[in-house]
Structure formats: C-alpha cells, structure tokens
Amino acid sequence: MMNDTKTYNFETGVYRPPSEGGSYSLLVRFTRNCPWNRCGFCGMYKNEKFELRTPEEIKQDIDAIAAICSDLKDISEQIGQGGKVCHEAAVALINKIPELNYHQGFPMVYHWLLSGAKTAFLQDANSLIMKTDQLVNVLQYLRKTFPSIARVTSYGRSKTIAQKKADELLAICKAGLDRLHLGLESGDDEVLQLIKKGVTAEGHIKAGQKALAAGFQVSEYWMPGLGGKNLWENHARNTAHVLNSINPHYIRSRPFHPWPGTPMHDAIQNNEFQMLSPDEQLHELKLTIQELDVTANVCFDHAGNYWKDRHGSLLFTHSYEGYKFPQDKQTVLDLIDEGLKAGNQRSTFVRL
C-alpha cells in the first residue's frame, strides 16, 4: 500500500565529504550543524545553531527513507519492472505523489539505491558528540533497517574523540560506524591557535590513535597553505609529524582558500595574513610529503587541488583512493616537481 507524503518526511543536511556523497552514500542527519563552529577558515555553519537530534527523530527519518525504498520497489512490481529500482518506477511514484518533485531527499535516496545502497554518511559535523548509548542504538537501527549497507562514515572532531572512553569508541565502532573523517588542518600548535581549532597537535595525535585502536578507518584532512608565508615551514613539518604519529588509513589534502565572511578572509583583507602563491603551496606540499613516513592513502580528491602540469592537465588524480604510501611517495614528489616546472597560477574552484 502506498504511503502518504508525511511518511516520507526526513531531514537532509548540506555538507558531506566528496568521497561520501553524490550517488553513493545515504545521507542520514544525526545532528544539526557544528557544536564547535569557531574555526577561522570555515564558513559552513557560521549562521546556524548546533542541535542534537533525539534517537526517536533519527529513527523516524530512517523509517521515512525505508518507506520510499519500499514504495519504489512495490511500484516497480506494479509496472512490470520486477521490483527493480529504475527511472520508470521513480517517475511512476512521482506521478502518484507529485509532492516528491519538491522533496529534498528523494533524489538522493533514488540515486543511492541505483548505486547499490552500500554506504551511508552521518550528518552533520560531529555525530560522535551524541551520548554513546544513543548513538549505538541508532546505528544499530540503521544497520538493521538497511542490511545492504557495507560502510557507515561520519565527521568527527578530534577533541570529542579524545574525550570518549576507549570502551565507548569500541561500542560505537561495533555498532556499525566504520570510518571517521577528522579535520586535522595542521599539526602545528601556532597554526591551530591562529585558526581557533580548539585542539593541540597532541590532542590530534591522541584522538587519531584512539580512533584507530577502536577499529575505525581514519581519514585525516590537512590544509596546505594554512600557515601562510610566516608559518609555512612549521606547518609543513609539524603536520607531517602528527600524521606520522597517527598513521591513518587516509590523508586528504584540502588546500586553504579564503572563504568570504570568515575571520581568515578578513585577516587577508587587512594584510594580517599573507597567502602563499600556488607555487609556494607546492613547495610547502613537497616538504610535507618528504617528511611523511606512513602506510596510508594520500589523496587529492577535491577541486581545491587545482595545480596543473605542463600540458594543462590536473597534476594529481582526484581519485578517492589517491596514492598508496610508501610505494607511491616518489611518484607524488615527481608530480610536485612537474607542477613547479609548469608554474601554477591562482584558479577558482567549486567548494564541496
């Protein structure tokens, strides 16, 4: 029996890592916005208030998504498509319930099903801030409702992870959260203080090591260029040191680009912070890579990694798996040298 539109109501946030979005991940909102929301480079949640969602709210959203999945399958059977999720079934469901044309999450669920319904991402900025028993409960419900899911991921703040007890992190991982995306940004304490990250280099190391010990896949993000002209060398060396101390599964480059309306953007406008040129960023990047001693995938899977070679092509692959270290370390260093020979200018990019 077809559900009504109230049954289909669920929340979807705006942000997710590129590797966890598009057609591949189901986006399930566990919290709203960011509980810290003070980072000087970030404008993602600046005008939004952080809110915890109750387990009941989240479960209602999961039920709504399940209702869409079930009704797509049922209508597919009715139109002779054998229960297969397909374009014809989606159109037929929309024709029955035209409000779905304006449903923010319906296209996401449809494309997720088409991709095989294998991954899910927990929104928004720091799901681990939930009480552990509640997070475990809702994770178990998500996994039970959608047994096809093979991987569940979330953003996590280093300070939150460091404050969790080891047995809590183990329970969360066992309940079905597989991968954590952590915003390292820098391993230099002076840079971390400058950007108001709210955590020290040692705090980052403690969090990364605790997450790994609990069984999570760990994906650390760092920002080439975040130290500017004054702190670039310490930023490069100390970031490599922190990453070496953690040795995460993934290291992802997110070069610093000023976001209008943020404190870092204002500092640049007031000549209080001097940006590196693209070539200077590559020199910094080279030092970081030289100092890395990890067994990790080093990734440039973002439009901000816009450097070009002498043929005008992107310098690095934007593959979500990137380059496997240490095997591909020299390859990355050779690519950086190629970029330096090409000479790189500032470019615009799409913020994801």
| Strand percentage | 5-15%
The CATH superfamily of the largest domain bears the name: Aldolase class I
Which CATH architecture of the largest domain?
Alpha-Beta Barrel
CATH fold category name of the largest domain: TIM Barrel
Straight-line N-to-C gap: 39 Å
- Let me know the number of strands: 10
Q: How would you classify the helix and strand content by structural class? A: alpha/beta
Number of helices: 12
Give me the side-by-side strand order of the main sheet: 1-4-5-6-7-8-9-10
Characterize the main sheet: 8 strands, mixed
| Poorly predicted residue ranges | 348-352
Structural domains: how many: 2
Global shape: globular
Helix-strand sequence: EEEHHHEHEHHEHHEHEHHEEH
Summarize the structure.
By secondary structure, this protein is α/β, with parallel strands linked by helices. Helix content is 42%, strand content 12%.
Question: Would you mind describing this structure in some detail?
Answer:
By secondary structure, the protein is of the alpha/beta class. The chain contains twelve helices and ten strands. It has helices spanning 55-78, 87-96, 106-114, 132-145, 158-163, 166-175, 189-194, 201-214, 228-246, 263-269, 278-291, 329-342; strands spanning 25-29, 31-32, 51-52, 119-123, 151-156, 179-185, 217-222, 250-253, 297-299, 323-324. An eight-stranded mixed sheet has the order 1-4-5-6-7-8-9-10. A two-stranded antiparallel sheet has the order 2-3.
